[in-house]
Amino acid sequence: MDTSEYRDLFLAEAREYLQGLNIALLQLESDPANREVLQEMFRAAHSLKGMSATMGYQQLANLTHQMENVLDFLRQGTLRANREVANVLFESLDLLELLLGRLDEPAACLEQLDRVVGKLRAACDGSMEEAGSLGNAADGDALLLDEFEKEMLRAGCAGGERARHLQVILDASCLLKSVRAYMVFKLLENFGHIVKAVPGAQELEEEQFEDRFQLVILTQAADETIRSELLQIAEVADVFVRDVPEMGVPSAGLEPAVVRQVEVVSETAVSQEEADGERRNIRRAAEKTIRVETDKLDKLINLVGELVVNRTRVVELGRTDVAAELVSAVEQLDRITTDLQSAVMKLRMVPIKQVFDRFPRMVRDLSQEKGKKVNLEIRGEETELDRSIVNQIGDPLVHLLRNSVDHGIEPPGVRVQNGKPEEGTIILEARHEGSYVLIRVSDDGRGIATEEMLQKAVQKGLLSSAEAQRISDEEVLRLIFRNGFSTAEQVTDISGRGVGMDAVKTVIESMNGSVEIKTSPGEGTRFYVRLPLTLAIIKALLVEVAGEIYAIPIEAIRENLYVAPQDIKTIQGEKVINVRSEVLPLIYLGEMLGMKSGSSEEILSVVVVEAAERKTGLVVDVLLGQQEIVIKSLSRAVEGIRGVAGATVLGNGRVALILDVSSLI
Amino acid sequence: MNNLIVKTEEQPQDELQLVAFFLQGEEFAVDIQRVREVLKLPPITPLPQSLDFIEGVINLRGEVIPVVDLRKRFRLADASKSDKARIIIVEIEEGLVGLIVDSVTEVLHLIPSAIEPPPRRLAGTRSEFISGVGKLGDRLIIILHLEKILSTEEQLELEHLQLAQPERMALNR
């Protein structure tokens, strides 16, 4: 079967399962007894196995098969979710991700695969030992024996037979599962007799089971004999034989078996309801959405944009006509188009959860590595943002979080000394704020010492000592975003190389967003990232220059001024104005754009814009007002014009250019 | 309707259909396969600091499309645009581009044998822009080579040196 056309679909779905597994595993670490999570993880691993086998990805199928086994033992309670098991599972997930990225190289990562599969198998074996040594401690409630069955087992044991619990796993590709089950039953009759089957014989016959079933038998044969005989049957993938939990002889006189405890940095205590919600999410994402090519969406959005423009025209016409019928029809059209536009724009919106979901795992690994205790709290992950922004915001946030773990949160010992809880808290929060989304990354760590930063800045020559005298605390903090600045004493592989924070700022500003930093020494640091809801629509100030209309993104604008000619000064031939003791260079937009300067007004209209920390006054002819505009890219044939970021279509159908402030000044 | 279809089938397979237009009295044409539509002149927004023959950009149902003034491109005398002036929207490698012409006349049918390679200079137009000259009765029709329409002068000079003789026998499709 040619499966290549399903490859992308497979990848997307597999990644969703993988993400779900990662989240669930983190949850499991903090709440090892949560069966619901285990059940969900097991199903996810099982689906992955099935998908991979169907697509012919043997390595993936093999790996997920072993994961499934471990999860199955966990789910049955014969294996405890201790830290080692969790780490092996995390390792498997990492490998899974690696393999997904290299689907086309079947020979890749074979060594790693062997190692991880080995570890997973070892974990299963551990389960056997544990089951043996712990006896009753392993509460196999998946296998509830009624009184009659227990009586049978007791009678059998008294008669010299042993009660054994068998788990039979069939090949994922097995077609006639009921036949195989029947063959297993048949064979076992040679060794002893079957007391109970889970699922029951009826369900087994009707194939109402996934790929495994459990049996309780009374036999005299050795475990190994039973296992090897059963493995002779075609399509029986694996057989595990162990004690029947309820028949295990409690070792009287011994201390109750000590179960190895989970001792990992726990996530926020998740309440039961939340946990229930979470576990469903593993599958939910796939069921609630359909995949649509982004090109099709963009086309639709474009058409709706055009509809909106035409609506404006009709509305204008409607105002000039007195016919009341027409006016009301036009108003109706106006409402419908507005709703349609917002509905269509929402198609591009995706919850920021997609990005946030990566972080618990990252923070966990990072804090373990750094020997710190960190609790990451995530809030507002349902907040929606434009798809393209969500795609780009991941890296900057990774950097901010790493920064918090590495520089912000102190080592546990230091925290205790300072009278703080041993475990540090990082809060990652997203919420709507007007037409923007605010993302806050805050930690309760040591904060930033502005004095030290100032010294560093002077040392590195970023500031003169004279400048250092005048600079305000806020400005000092902003130095963090300057290229070549790092306060970390030790350069680590995580952060502190002086690159990154400036990249963070660049990426965020390229999306018309902004980033701010606030700190209180000893109490923590907060980063505020403000992003537009969508890249496709921005707020802009419309201005007229030489008879043409231009749009200036509001984000870049600080204020608008009217300046009298006598207030314009000249410094070294450059015209400047003085705004509240700040000297700003003036740029005549008309001249800058090579257009004939139009206005002969006495009083100049000046738009003060800021980009890359530099403020400039742009002289325009007329300030027309603020408006939401839909950004259109310029054709490839004419792109790259200095000072022009794109174009938009105005209400009258004409094209207006959007100015790129950073390349203008 | 049926008649029309039959007629089309009777036509030779390799016959070319061209959209013909006038530019300063000369007759030009572009391959109809490249033509998306023909418009009356909409308001044009000038594009500062772009190549001089780029007249600006227009809004074509929500898409922003650059417009080339062919008179400026071919260094013909600038004339005020009459009511007959049209924009032919064509598809080139860079995307859609509008070409301002004096007027659009008709759709022509030409057989390949009626098309001759371009002479070195014709009607003041550089041969780079011409893929051939079509003969229809006693009419001479200059067929445009669209790919070079947006190239800068420097790019053209460079190619001119590399390609000693222009060999553009075949119509570009």
Defining traits:
heterodimer; A: 665 residues; alpha+beta; Four Helix Bundle (Hemerythrin (Met), subunit A); Alpha-Beta Plaits; Helix Hairpins; 22 helices; 22 strands; elongated; B: 173 residues; mainly beta; OB fold (Dihydrolipoamide Acetyltransferase, E2P); six-stranded mixed sheet; five-stranded mixed sheet; 13% helix; globular; disordered N terminus; disordered C terminus
List the helices and strands and how they pair.
The complex is a heterodimer of chains A (665) and B (173).
Chain A: H1 7-30, H2 35-55, H3 58-76, H4 83-101, H5 110-134, H6 147-158, E1 162-170, H7 177-189, E2 192-198, H8 201-205, E3 212-219, H9 223-231, E4 236-243, H10 272-288, H11 294-320, H12 324-347, E5 349-351, H13 353-356, H14 359-370, E6 374-379, E7 384-386, H15 387-408, H16 412-417, E8 424-433, E9 436-443, H17 450-459, H18 465-470, H19 473-478, H20 501-510, E10 514-520, E11 524-532, E12 537-545, E13 548-553, E14 557-563, E15 569-571, E16 574-579, E17 582-588, H21 589-592, E18 604-611, E19 614-620, E20 622-630, E21 644-649, E22 655-659, H22 661-664
Parallel strand pairs in A: 6-8, 13-22, 17-19
Antiparallel strand pairs in A: 1-3, 1-4, 2-3, 5-7, 8-9, 9-11, 10-11, 12-13, 12-20, 14-18, 15-16, 16-17, 18-19, 21-22
Helix pairs in contact in A: 1-2, 1-4, 1-10, 2-3, 2-10, 3-4, 3-5, 4-5, 11-12, 14-15, 15-20
Chain B: H1 2-10, E1 16-23, E2 26-31, E3 35-40, E4 54-60, E5 63-69, H2 70-73, E6 86-92, E7 95-101, E8 103-110, E9 115-116, E10 121-122, E11 125-126, E12 130-136, E13 139-144, H3 153-162
Parallel strand pairs in B: 2-13, 5-7
Antiparallel strand pairs in B: 1-2, 1-8, 3-6, 4-5, 6-7, 9-12, 10-11, 12-13
